[in-house]
User: Which sequence fits this backbone?
């Protein structure tokens, strides 16, 4: 969604669910479902009908990655996690205890850093590439 929001800013005006769906290779219905919590969080607005579409509600310099993350339901910030398949296994217990704490600390650090990164900063970085 960060990618989509930055593109919306660069396009200016309104962006339809159909256009966003093309960007993401998905269905416009999926786009509307995904954008709904962003709208509830006050990050985007929408207008229906002819000439309608999605718009940013605020300047991207005032929107943090953390706000987008939270609006989307705070999914796991890490793609890896510890598995608990054999609760009675002492090796698994040791691994889960040690790595679980590491992953929690890492996620906490990432979430704090997300407060300092705005979509505007990401857009500027993209312009440099």
Assistant:
């Amino acid at each position: 969604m960060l990618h989509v929001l930055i593109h919306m800013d660069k396009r200016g005006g309104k962006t339809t669910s159909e256009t966003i769906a093309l960007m993401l290779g998905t269905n416009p219905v999926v786009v509307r479902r995904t954008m709904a919590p962003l709208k509830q969080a006050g990050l985007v607005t929408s207008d229906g009908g002819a000439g309608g579409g999605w718009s940013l509600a605020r300047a991207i310099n005032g929107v943090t990655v953390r706000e987008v993350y939270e609006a989307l339901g705070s999914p796991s910030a890490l793609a890896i996690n510890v598995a608990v398949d054999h609760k009675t296994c002492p090796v698994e217990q040791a691994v889960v205890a040690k790595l679980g704490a590491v992953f929690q600390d890492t996620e906490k650090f990432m979430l704090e850093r997300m407060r300092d990164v705005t979509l505007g900063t990401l857009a500027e970085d993209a312009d440099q590439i």
In short: The two ends are 20 Å apart (CA to CA).
